[in-house]
Every structure is written in structure tokens, then in C-alpha cells.
Amino acid sequence: MDKPICNKSLEDNVLIGKNIIVGICGGIAAYKTPHLVRLLKKRGANVRVALTEGGARFVSELALATVSQEPVYRTMFPPANTAGTDYTRHISLGEWADALIIAPATANTLAKLSAGLCDDMLSAFFITLRPGKPVLIFPAMDGQMFLSPSVQRNMATLAAQGCTIISPESGELASGQCGLGRMPEPDAIVNSLEKALHYGGKSSPLYDKSVVITAGPTREKIDGVRFISNYSSGKMGFAIARDAAKRGARVTLITGPVNLETPFGVSRIDVESAAEMHEASRKFFTSCDLFIGAAAVSDYRPASPYEGKLKKNDRELQLTLVQNPDILAEFGMQKASGQLAIGFALETQTGLDKAREKLATKNLDLIAFNFFDRLTSGFEVDTNILTLIERDGVTTELPQLTKDAAAARLLDAIEQLCPKTGINP
Ligand code: PMT
Question: What is the pTM of this model?
Fold first, then answer.
């Protein structure tokens, strides 16, 4: 049997020792579930499978028992007079679980769970699961079925109960048609579970939200070998990306040149100049829920960078600089209701008013005034001193914190804004 994979940092191995129930319903995507169970086991989880009668038509109980190394749970009623049978296992196993995944979830099971029916082991586990434990539901069915009012209503009921419903993907369906309805691949399901567990099972308003973060410096070419830049290390932006991913957000990190590892679960886009950062960012302007500008973007760039290497001579050299586009201001101005724009303002001690001015002119929902001294706060160092200023004037002064802790406090404040601005918790 496979040994747990431990090649990520300990913090990232949230599945080690976790008890996971995988509920499998009757859809063609069930054929992928032995692989899902195997991936969970490889990450160190203890896995028990609840298979519905429909599920058993698509995937073999023997395969699931073999990969999970546990009996598969199906019927509520074990044969009478069976010595050693645990007659209350539907309760004890619900209590045992740290999380429940239902993949694929059919229209029938969604209806049963939303109505509180309890006639097989999967629905029993669902009802007996401890409050606060993550339930991740992956509906997979024909696109028309998925969009039908009854399926949508049942999913809304389950979401209101705190379940996380992960939309199916588009692609080729069993019917031969193309459209919405495919179950995500097993590694994506594992990824979603890891994110949910990272956040302690608590449901964050940022869960499954699209968050775009800019980080690091930009480089503006003077010639083929020289550039204008600044001291930004990217640490602050990367810390925000790491924490947002832990809260279950889908994070895109657009970063200038830095020497940092990509945080777990984050999708990274490397750019060099402000123009490249602008172009990469614009692709997400209409689709993201949250845009956070933590990058130190050069306000100016040389008007006409020299192709080769500028040669030294006796005369003065004058560089003409032209303004770069203001990425965050552009997003702030065109964001739709429900989208949030968050910025930073790196200023010296007296810069609070300047930060407030940037909040207003860039039409932001929150700005982090970043005190700058290069010893305890600002560029390169591992700590930061932020003052969070909200649109309605509410101001929260944070003490000197590590950049990780400052990122967490910033995201806590953003979570508080979500209900006010339309990102649904
Ligand atoms: O990377 P580190 O070494 O960890 O340092 C972190 C940091 C100090 C760079 C970071 O915490 C920070 O304060 N970033 C903003 C730096 C800044 O001075 O921004 P600004 O005042 O020039 O711009 C205000 C806001 O508009 C920022 O959110 C910025 O990302 C954004 N902006 C600015 C100019 C521009 N052309 N496009 C932008 O999007």
C-alpha cells in the first residue's frame, strides 16, 4: 500500500491523520473515485467510503474497500444477529469524521440531503456529522439537470446549512454533449478539501472566491541591461496570497521579480514591468471578486528604452519618464457592485492623510497605510506596521506584526467587509 506523501511542508500536510468520509452517488464520474480515495490515502488521511445503491452500479465496492483498506458502508441495516456488528455505526462514524466529501453528488442525493431524509449510510453520516466539520459537495450530472430549479434550490438549501457546493466543470458529458456537469478531477477535489481543512473547517466568506493579488516590485527598462525598480521583496503580497488560499480562495498572484516560493494552492503569474502587470491584471478585472494591490508598482517608466547598452560619454544623460497606468485605480473605477478593491499606501509616519486620499481617488474599499522605515516595517523586512482604513472611515491601527500575521489581520478585515459589499458569506 502507498506510504503517505510528505514532500510538502508540515503545515501544508493538513490531511495527515484526518478522518475523511467519501460519499459516492450514482453517476458516471463515480469511476474516478478509487483514484480519489487513493490520493487521500497517499496524503495520509484515513478514508471510509459511503456508497449509495446508485453509486454501486458505477464503481465496485471491492475496488473501494481495497484502496481505502476499510469496509465500504452501504446499507443502514446490517444482517440481524451478526456477532460484533456495530448497530450504531451511522452515529459513531459521523462523529469520527473530520470532513465529508460527496463526489459525485447526484440530483437525487442533493434532494434527500436538503430534505433531511436519512435512508442510507451516506445520508446518515451527513446528518450525524459534528457541527462545523467541512462538507464539500461536488454535483456532477447533465447540464440541464444541474440548472433545473429544483436542483438549484436544493443546493441553495445545503449551502445555507454551511455545506460548500463546488460547481461542476464544463466539458464532454456522458450524454455525448458538451456543457456544464463534469465532476472536477480527483486532485482538484483533494485540493479543495485541503483548503477547507487548512481553515479549520470554518467557512470563510472568501471560500471559492476569486482573489487577485499583485506583489513585488516592477522593473522599468532604461536600456538592455539597466532598469528602474524599488526594494520590494514580495513578502507582503505572498503572505496575503498564502493566507487567502488557506481560507479557500482561488488565488492568482501576479508578481514582479522576487525570490520567493509560490505559496501552496496559489496560481502565479510572473511579470517584469508595470505594463506587463497591468496587462496580466486586466484579464481578471471582470471575473475576480477581490483585487488586492500589494505591489510596489513604478509610477514612471523611461519613455524610450534603449535597445542595446547605453554607452558612457562626457555629456549629461537625461531620461524622460512617462507615467505608468495605475492598475489598482483602473480596477477601482470600473469594479462592479460585489467586487472589492483593496490597496496599500507606503508612506512615512505622517502619511495617513495621503493614504485616505488614495482610498478615495482610487475608489477603494479598504487601504492599508504601510508605515515605512525599512527596519521594522515596509520593504524587505519580515515584519510590518499597518493601519487599515475602510471606506466609511473606520480605522484600525495594527501593532508591529510578522507579515504573515499582518496578512491574516488584513484578510480578517476584508472578510468583515464581504457582507457589506455583496460577496456572500
Ligand atoms: O514586498 P515587500 O518587501 O514585502 O514590501 C511590501 C510593500 C511595502 C511593497 C507593500 O506592503 C506596500 O505597501 N505596497 C504598496 C507600495 C506603494 O507605495 O504603493 P503606492 O502608494 O505607490 O500605490 C498605492 C496602491 O496603488 C498600491 O496598492 C499599489 O499596488 C497600487 N498601484 C500603484 C501604482 C500603479 N501604477 N499601479 C498600482 O496598482
Answer: 0.67
